[in-house]
Amino acid sequence: MTKFRVGILGATGVVGQRFIQLLEDHPQFEVAALAASDRSQGKEYADACTWRLPGEMPHRVKAIRVQSPEPPLDCDFVFSSLPGDIAAEAEQNFARGGYPVISNSSSHRMAADVPLLIPEVNPDHVSMINVQQDIRGYDRGFIVTNPNCSAIVIVMALAPLQAQFGVTSCVATTMQALSGAGYPGVASLDATDNVVPFISGEEEKIEAETLKLLGRYHGGAIEAAEMKISAQCNRVNVTDGHMASMRVQFAQSVSIDQIREALSSFTAVPQELNLHSAPERPVIVRDEADRPQPRLDRDAGKGMSITVGKIRADGVLDYRFVALGHNTVRGAAGAAILNAELLVAKGYLVH
Amino acid sequence: MTKFRVGILGATGVVGQRFIQLLEDHPQFEVAALAASDRSQGKEYADACTWRLPGEMPHRVKAIRVQSPEPPLDCDFVFSSLPGDIAAEAEQNFARGGYPVISNSSSHRMAADVPLLIPEVNPDHVSMINVQQDIRGYDRGFIVTNPNCSAIVIVMALAPLQAQFGVTSCVATTMQALSGAGYPGVASLDATDNVVPFISGEEEKIEAETLKLLGRYHGGAIEAAEMKISAQCNRVNVTDGHMASMRVQFAQSVSIDQIREALSSFTAVPQELNLHSAPERPVIVRDEADRPQPRLDRDAGKGMSITVGKIRADGVLDYRFVALGHNTVRGAAGAAILNAELLVAKGYLVH
Amino acid sequence: MTKFRVGILGATGVVGQRFIQLLEDHPQFEVAALAASDRSQGKEYADACTWRLPGEMPHRVKAIRVQSPEPPLDCDFVFSSLPGDIAAEAEQNFARGGYPVISNSSSHRMAADVPLLIPEVNPDHVSMINVQQDIRGYDRGFIVTNPNCSAIVIVMALAPLQAQFGVTSCVATTMQALSGAGYPGVASLDATDNVVPFISGEEEKIEAETLKLLGRYHGGAIEAAEMKISAQCNRVNVTDGHMASMRVQFAQSVSIDQIREALSSFTAVPQELNLHSAPERPVIVRDEADRPQPRLDRDAGKGMSITVGKIRADGVLDYRFVALGHNTVRGAAGAAILNAELLVAKGYLVH
Amino acid sequence: MTKFRVGILGATGVVGQRFIQLLEDHPQFEVAALAASDRSQGKEYADACTWRLPGEMPHRVKAIRVQSPEPPLDCDFVFSSLPGDIAAEAEQNFARGGYPVISNSSSHRMAADVPLLIPEVNPDHVSMINVQQDIRGYDRGFIVTNPNCSAIVIVMALAPLQAQFGVTSCVATTMQALSGAGYPGVASLDATDNVVPFISGEEEKIEAETLKLLGRYHGGAIEAAEMKISAQCNRVNVTDGHMASMRVQFAQSVSIDQIREALSSFTAVPQELNLHSAPERPVIVRDEADRPQPRLDRDAGKGMSITVGKIRADGVLDYRFVALGHNTVRGAAGAAILNAELLVAKGYLVH
After folding, report:
1. What 8-state DSSP symbol labels residue A89?
2. Co-location of C174 and C196 in the same domain
3. Residue in D54, D192, D193 nearest the CB of B295
4. Which stretches of D216-268 are DSSP H helices?
5. DSSP B318
6. Cα–Cα 20 to 30 A to C95, which of A295, C153, C351, D164?
7. A193 with A109, same domain?
8. Across the strands, what pairs with B228?
9. Which residues in chain A touch residue C297, judged by CB atoms under 8 angstroms apart?
10. Which of C193, C230, C291 sits opposite D315 (nearest CB)?
C-alpha cells in the first residue's frame, strides 16, 4: 500500500516536532512537506529547526526544505499546528485549495461546520465534513480539528460516563504541563518553585469544547451537550502531562464500581477499527491512592491512553476523580494523527 | 514587661524551626525550653538539629538542651508541633500538668471541647477553653489548636464571604507545597517533573476542620457550619505556599465587586487588638490575571496574609477564585503564635 | 537457545526495578528469582514492590515470591543491587555458594581480585575472575562489579583519549541526578530550587575507580593507571542523567579534531561481539553549543551511550568538555547486564 | 544629609527591579528617575513594569514616568542595567553628559580605562576614574562597572587567598541560577529536569574579568593578574544563587586551616568604612559537609556575603572548595550599590 504523503504546517514548533516524531515509522503516512511561519522558510529542516525532543531528529526529514504555510504544497493532506493567529487564514487557504486539513490549532474548532473530533468520543461528527464542503464550496478540501490539550483529557474521562449514566455538571481544575505552552513558552522563573493560575483563554476553551465534543450530530448540525461545566486552570512545573482534578454530578444514581467499570471497559470505534495509533485501552483506571502522576502515567498507551484514579464520593457534587493524559501526544499531535487514521478508514482521505 | 517563657515541643522539625525563627525577636515570648521526640534528646540544640531554613539558627537557642516532650518543662506554656502519633498523649500530659498547650498538631483539633482557632475567624471559640477545663478537670492547663495548613487558607477566604453573604457550598482543589510534609517528607523523585494527587488524610481534615472553624460557639459547644464542602488535594513542586482553586455557592445573590470588597476590607479582632503577628490585611486581593503565585505572594504580610485573585463567575457554582497562603507561617507556626497572642490579650495566658 | 535464569538481589529498589525493566525482553536472560533485604520478603513481587518507573511492572515478575538475599536461589547467576552494607557479605555468600555475582554494589569494587568492568574499556580485566577463584577457593562462583554511576560516564569519555593520546590529569565536576540516590533518597526540600554539593563517598569512589578502570591487567593483577584525578560532586534537580564538566591534560599535543574523532569513532569489544545491550556508538559527540543536556541526551543509545559535547581548549589543563550518561541504565543496571553479556561471550557464564 | 537622587537605566528588567527594591530604604540614595529601552517609555512605572520580585513594588516609584535611556535625566548619577547592546552607547552618552554611571552591564567592563570594581577586592582601582576622565575628556561624568555575576563570587573567594598565599591557577565550574538570564530568560522546558551546559559568553567573561579584578593598579593602568584560569558554566534549575566548584593552585605551601582562616577573617575597605551595604563578613565559611546550598545560603549577609564550604585537598590542583553568592544582589544590583557607596566615601560622587 502506498503511504499518504503528508505536509506539516508549523513544523518547527514543539507540536510540529511531535508530529514528525510520531510519524517516523507510521504505516500509512509519510512526511513529504514541511512548512512554518517563522524565519525558517527556505532552509533545510535540519538547519531551520532546533530539535527539542529527546532523541534525534528523524533522518528522513533533515533535508526537506521548509516552505511558507501556503498552498500549493506537495502532499496529499496537511497536519497543522500553526499558531492561532496564522492558522485561521492559512488553514482555510489549504482547504479551499483542495487539501484536507487535520488541525491541532484552535482557530476553527468552534466553527459550527467544523468537526471537533475525538475518534473514541464522537466519530459520527465526521459527517460535518460533507456539510462543511457544501456550505463553503470546498471541493476536495476540508478542515477537521482536535480539541485543546486539557479538554481532550477531561472529555475522554467524561464520555463513557455521560454515555452510560448522563452527566449534568462537571467541575475540572487543571494542573497543566509546560510543553502545553510551546517553546520558549513559560519562563523558567515563572515555573520553578511556583504555580501560575493562568493560561490565556484556556478555561473558556475547555468549557466550550467539552460541550461541543459531547454534543450530538443531528440533521447536519452539532447540538452542544447540556451540561454545566466549570474549568479552572493552573500551570505547574511538569514537562509533559496535563492533570485534572474533577467532580461530576450524574443524572442518575451511580456507584463507584459502576464508574470504575464504565471507564476501564471503555472501547470505541478506533479500537474496533484497530487504528494504528489507537491505544488498546483509551482509559486506564489505577487503584493506587497516589495515582495518576504525570511522570509515571503520561506515557501510558504510548501517550494515547488517559489514566484515571482516585474515584471517590464527593461532598458537593456526586463523585470526584483525577484524570491525566499526555498533552503533546493524546492532547495534540497524536490526537490529529488518530483523527487522520479515522478519516482514512471512513474514506475521507484518499490518494 | 516580662516576656512569657515558652517551650517548643517538636523543636527539631520543620515547623519547630519556624517557631524558633518567628519567635527570635518576639516582644512577648521568648524561647526557654526545647523538646523533641527524636534522638536529639540530651544534646544542645545546635548539635541536635540540622537547621533547614534559610539563614542561621538564632544564636540564643543554640545552647538550650533538648528535652523529652514530657512535663515538667521550665516554661510558662508550650507550642507544639509534635508528630500526630506522639502529640495526642504528650499534649494531654502537658495540659493536665498545668501547661497551656498551643498546638499545631492535628491530634486534638476535632475534639468537641478543643478550640480550633483562627483569631480573625472565630475568636469567640476561645471560650471553649473554660468548658474544656471543666470537663477534663484541667487546672491551669488547656489545649488550643490551629487548623491544617490548607484549611486555614481556605477558611480565611471563606470567612468574610460566609459572614456577609452566607456560603452554602465550597469546592476546593489544593496545590500544596513540599514543606507541608516536613523533612525529609516528599521524596524528590516524587516531586520533580510531577504532581502527586495524594496527601494522607488531608481531604478529610480540610473538610471537617472547615466546618468546625466556620461553626458557631453557642451554649458551651461549637455547632459545625452547615455547608457542603469538597476538598481534593495535590502535592506540587513548590517549596512553600499552599494554593487552592476554589468555587463557592452563596446563599444569596452576590456580585464580583461585593466579593472583592468583602475580602479586601476584611479585618477582625487581631487587627483591632493590634496583635504583634497580625497582618494589616488578613486577605489581600490582587487583580492581575496571573496572581496569586506561591513564589511571589507567599510572603505577603510577612507570611501571615492570604492572597486571593481571579474572582470570576463560575459555570457550576456561583463564583470561583484562587487563594494562597504560606503553609509554615500562616498555616502552622505563625498561626499558633497568633493564637497565643490572642490568648494573652484575652487573659488566658498569664505569668 | 535456553535463556539463563537470573536472580536479582535488591529487586525492590530503584536499580532492581531497572534490572527487571531492562530484562523484560532480553534474548539471553530471564528473571527467575527475586530477593530483597527489606520487609518485602515472602510476598509476591506485585505486593512487595511499589513500582516507581514509568510504565507498568512487567507481568511475568508479578507472582514471583521475594526471597531473602541468601543462597540458595533458583537461578544460574545473580545480579546484585543490594545496599552497600548488606552487599558485602551477601555477595560473598553467593559466590562461595557457586553463583556468579554480577554486582552494581560498591562493596567489592576496589578489592584487588575483583574485576571492575566496563566492556568497552577493560574487557581483559575479566581474567581476574580466574585469579579470584584461585585465591578465594571459589568453585563456580565469582564476583564481577560495574563502576559507580558517575565514574562510568567519566571513564567512557576518558578511555578512548587515554588509549590514543595518554591522559595525565583529569578534573571532573559532576552534576548528578536524583535517581542516583535511590528512593526515597534525596528529600524534595533539598532538591527544589537548590543544588547540594555533597554525595557521601562519591568523590573518593570516582577517583579510585577511575584509576582501576583505566588500569592494566598484567601478571594476574590490575595496575592502577597513573593519572592525577580530581572529582567534585553535586546533586542537582534532575530525575535521571549524570553530567560531568571535565578538564583533561594529555601526555602529548592533541587537537580538538583529534579528540572529537577519537571519541566519536570509538568502538570496542561489545560492538565487535554485537552484544545485545551494546550501543552502536558508545560515545556520541554532539556539536551544538548547548549539548549534552540530561533531559535530551540521557536516553541516547537506549540509555547505553555516553554523550560528549563542548570540546574546547582550556586555560589550566589542555582541554575541557562535558560528558553525560544515564545513571540508572549505563550507570547501573544496564552496565551490569552488559557485563553479563560479555561474560557469556567469554565463556564465564554457562548453563 | 540630603540623599543623592539616582536614575536607573533598565529599570523594568529583573536587575532594575532589584535596584529599586534594594534602594527602597537606602540612607544615601533615593530613586528619582527611571529609564528603559523597551516599550515602557512614557508610562508610569506602575503601568510600565510587571513586578517580578516577591513583595510589592515600592510605593514611591509607582508614579515615576519611565523615560528613554538618554541624557538628560533629572538625577545626580545613574545606575545602569541596560542590555549589553544598548548599554555601550547609552552609558557613554551619560558619562559624556556629566553623569557618573555605575553600571552592571558588561559593555565597558573590559575597557582599559574603566574600573571593574569590587570594593572588598580592588578599591584602589577607582583611581582609573581620573585616568578615564582625562583620556575621554569627560568632565564630571565617568563609567564604573561591577563584574559578571559569577566572576564576583569566584573573585571574592580568590582575593584573600591570592593576597596571602598567591594563586597560580584556578579552575571554576559554575552552576548558575535562572535569574541570571533575566526575564523571560531561560525557557522552562530547558530548566525543568535539566542542566544546560551553556551560557553565551559567560566563560570568556569570567576568565577575563577575574584577571582584571585581581590585577594591580599601577601607573595609571591596571595590570592583569598572572594566573591561569578556566571557567566552565552550567545553567541549573535554581531561581537565585550562583554556585562554583573551584580548584586552586597556590604559589606556596598552604594548609586547609590557613585557607579557612584567610577566608573567614577577610574584611576590607567597605567594612572599615562601614558602608551601608557592606556585609559584616564578606566571606562566610561553613563547615557542614553539604554547604553552601543556593536555597539556604544565598541570602547570607542580606545577599551580600559569599559563602564558602567544602575546603579539601585536591588530586590535580592543590585544594578545592565550593563558593556561592546571590547573583542579583552581590552579583548585580547590590554590587553596583556598594560601588556607589564606595565612590561617595572616596569623594567621586558629590551633590
Report:
1. H
2. yes
3. D54
4. 256-264
5. S
6. C153
7. no
8. B169
9. 54
10. C230
Nearest CA in chain B to C240: B189
Residue B1, pLDDT above cutoff 80: no
A189 lies in which domain range? 149-326
Residue A116 phi/psi, 5-degree rounding, is -110, 110
Residues B121, B67 share a domain: yes
pLDDT score recorded for residue C40: 83
Chains that touch C (3 or more CB pairs under 8 A): A, B, D
Q: Please choose, from the candidates C96, C78, C74, the residue with its C-alpha nearest in 3D space to the C-alpha of residue C140.
A: C96
Q: What are phi and psi of D306, to 5 degrees?
A: -95, 140
Contact B169 A316 (CB under 8 A): yes
pTM beyond 0.95: yes
Among D286, D295, D298, D307, which would you mutate to test the B interface (most chain B Cβ atoms within 10 Å of its Cβ)? D295
Q: Which residue in chain A has the smallest CA separation from B320?
A: A232
Which amino acid is present at C140?
Answer: R
- Subunit contact D55:B192, Cβ cutoff 8 A: no
Question: Which residues, listed in sequence order, are joined to residue D67 by a DSSP beta bridge?
Answer: D35
Choose the closest CB to B189 out of C52, C189, C190: C52
Which residue, among C296, C297, C324, C326, would best test binding to A if mutated, counting the most A CBs under 10 Å from its CB? C296
Chain A residues touching residue C194 (CB < 8 angstroms): none
Q: Residue D248's domain is classified under what CATH number?
A: 3.30.360.10
In a domain, A350, yes or no: no
Residues C209 and C299 in one domain: yes
Q: Do A206 and A254 fall into the same domain?
A: yes
| CATH number of the domain where residue A120 is located | 3.40.50.720
Q: Is B92 exposed, middle or buried (0-12, 13-18, 19+ CB in 10 A)?
A: middle
Residues B218 and B286 in one domain: yes
**Residue in C189, C192, C238 closest to B183 by CB:** C189
In chain C, residues with a C-beta closer than 8 Å to the C-beta of D293 are 190, 194-197
Query: Nearest Cα to A270, choosing from A328, A323, A339, A214?
Result: A339
pLDDT for position A85: 87
H helices of chain D, where?
14-22, 45-48, 84-96, 128-136, 149-165, 188-191, 202-213, 256-264, 269-272, 294-297, 334-345
Establish if C351 belongs to a structural domain.
Answer: no
- In-domain check, residue D350: no
Q: Which of C49, C149, C170, C233 is catalytic?
A: C149
Q: Say yes or no: D267 and D156 in one domain.
A: yes
Structural domain includes residue B315: yes
Helix segments in chain B, DSSP class H: 14-22, 45-48, 84-96, 128-136, 149-165, 188-191, 202-213, 256-264, 269-272, 294-297, 334-345
DSSP B66-133: EE-SSS--SSSEEEE---HHHHHHHHHHHHHTT-EEEE-SSTTTT-TTS-B--TTT-GGGGGHHHHHH
Minimal CA separation from B315 to chain C, in Å? 36
Residue D37 has pLDDT above 90, yes or no: no
**ipTM score for this prediction:** 0.96
Report residues of chain A scoring pLDDT below 50: none
Q: Nearest C-alpha of chain D: how many angstroms from A90?
A: 28
Number of domains observed in the structure of chain D: 2
Q: Which residues of A71-93 are buried (b: 16+ CB within 10 A; e: fewer)?
A: bebebbbbbbbbbeebbbebbbe
Q: Which residues of B touch D190 (CB under 8 A)?
A: none
pLDDT tens figures, C82-127: 998 899 999 999 999 999 999 999 999 999 999 999 999 999 999 9
Q: What is the pLDDT of residues C225-267, one digit of tens each?
A: 999 999 999 999 999 999 999 999 999 999 999 999 999 999 9
Chain D residues within 8 Å of chain A (Cβ atoms): 14, 52, 178-179, 183-193, 237-239
Query: Are B63 and B160 contained in the same domain?
Result: no
Question: Do D320 and C196 make contact, defined as CB atoms within 8 angstroms?
Answer: no
C-alpha–C-alpha distance, residues D116 and D106, integer Å: 10
